[in-house]
Amino acid sequence: MAQQRWRRIIPVAMVMYTMAYVDRTNVSLALDPSISSMMEDLGMNDQLKGEAAGIFFLGYMLLQIPSGYWASRWSARKLISLCLLGWGVFAIGCGLAQSFRQFACMRFLLGVAESGVFPATLVLLANWFPRAERARANAYWTLCQLVAIAGTGPLNGWLIGAFGWRTMLMLEGALPFIWLPLWWFCIRDHPAQAAWLDPAERQYIESQLRKDAEQLTAPANHGAGTRTALPLAKTAFAIGVLIAMYFLQNCQAYGCMTFFTAMLKGRGYTTVQHGILFAVPYAFAAVPMLLNSAHSDRTQERRGHVAVVYLLSGVSLILAVCVQGNFWLSYAFLCLAIPGPFAAMGPFWAIPGEILPGARMGIAIGLVNAFGNVGGFVGPSIVGYLKQEYQSLAVPFTVLGLGMLLAAGLAYLLPSRSGSSS
C-alpha cells in the first residue's frame, strides 16, 4: 500500500517546525561572547543570558492548552498558519532589539506566537497516523529539532562572523513567511479532506483510527484485547508525572544548549568551528532518536524506552563534568548526554494518545507541553545563576544530570500499558 502520508505530511510538518526550532537555537551562539557581541550590545551578564534564552518559554506556556483544544475542535492547519505569521514578526523583532528589555519582550512574544504549534501538530499527526505508527511519526517530525541545531549550527556561526548577530536573527526570522503558502496548500486536517490521498490508504487510515478509538473504552466495558482509558484520578496523576518528566527533560535540553559553547571558550576555535562542535552531538542524537522510537512501536512499550535514554543522558552529563580536565573525553560524554531528551520524544508523546480519547488528548498535550516547557526557562536560568556563583559549569551540569536521573525514575510511575498501573 502506498504511504503517501509519510511523504507528504511528515516532511512539510518537519520543515515547518525546523524553522520554529531555529528561533530557539540561534540565540545559543548569538549569546556566546567569544563569537558575538550580543551580550555586550544588550548589557548582559551570565544570569541575564540565561533569562534572555529562557523567557521564550514563559510566553510559550500561554496558548498550549487552548491550542490543543482548538486544534482538536477547529483546525490544526489553520491554527499553525496563524502561528507562522506571528512568530515571523517577533523573530525579526528580536534582531531589531536595542536593549535587554526589548529583546526579552520580543522573545516572550515569540514564545506566545509559537506556543500553539507543538500541540496542534501532535493533534494533526494523531489524525493521520494510527497508534501502531505514532511513535515513529512523532520521532520523524521532532527530528526537526536536531536538524535545526545540527544543520544551522555551522551556518549560524558563519552568519554571525560575516554579518553579525542582528542580521542572522532577522534572516532566519523571515523563514516562516516563505513556508506559509506551502503549508497551507499541502496540509489537510483529516484524510477525508485530502484529494491527493489514495482511496485505499484513506480507507486504511480511517479504519485503523476507528479501531483505536473503539479499543479505548471505559474500564467497566473493556474486554480481552482492548486498551482501557484510565479513570479520572489516574489520568490526572499520569498527566502530573508527564509534566514533571517533561519539565526535567527541558531543563537539561535547554540548559545544556544555552551554555554548551561556554566549554569551548579560550580554545582558539573560529566561529564556524564553534558551530560545528555545537552541532555534532545534535547530529548524533538522530540515531538513538529513530532507533528508540522504531523499537518502541515494534514492542508497543513506552515508559521503559523513555527511562533508559533519560538514565544514559543523566549519567553521561555527570561524567562529562567529572572529566572536564580532558576536553575530548568530556566532549564525548556530552555527545552521549545531549541526545537523551530527543531520543525520548517519540515514545513520550505517544503516551497521551494511549490513555486519553481524542477530544481530551489535545488538552492533555497542551497541559504537559505548557507546564513542562517551563523547564526551558528554569534550566538556562539555573545554569546561568550557578555558573555565575561558582565560575564553572560543573555544579549546574551536575544538577541537570541528577534531574534526568529523577525523570528516569518517574517514568516507572506511568502506566506500563493503557489501563494498567503496573
Distance between the termini: 37 Å
Order of helices and strands: HHHHHHHHHHHHHHHHHHHHH
CATH class: Mainly Alpha
Global geometry: globular
Output the radius of gyration.
21 Å
* Beta strand %: under 5%
Tell me the CATH architecture: Up-down Bundle
Average pLDDT score? 82
How would you describe the overall organization of this protein?
- The structure is a single chain.
- This protein has 21 helices and no strands.
- It has 422 residues and is mainly α.
- It has a single domain (4-190, 229-411), classed as MFS general substrate transporter like domains (Growth Hormone, Chain: A), CATH 1.20.1250.
- Helix 1 (4-30) runs antiparallel to helix 10 and helix 12 (232-259) packs parallel to helix 19.
- The longest helix is centred in the N-terminal third of the chain and has 33 residues, at 64-96.
Concise summary:
With 422 residues, the chain is an all-alpha fold. The chain has 21 helices and no strands.
List its traits:
Growth Hormone, Chain: A, mainly alpha, 422 residues
Layout of strands and helices, then pairs:
Elements: H1 4-30, H2 38-41, H3 46-54, H4 56-60, H5 64-96, H6 100-114, H7 117-128, H8 134-163, H9 165-173, H10 175-186, H11 199-215, H12 232-259, H13 271-284, H14 286-299, H15 303-322, H16 327-337, H17 340-343, H18 345-355, H19 358-372, H20 375-390, H21 394-411
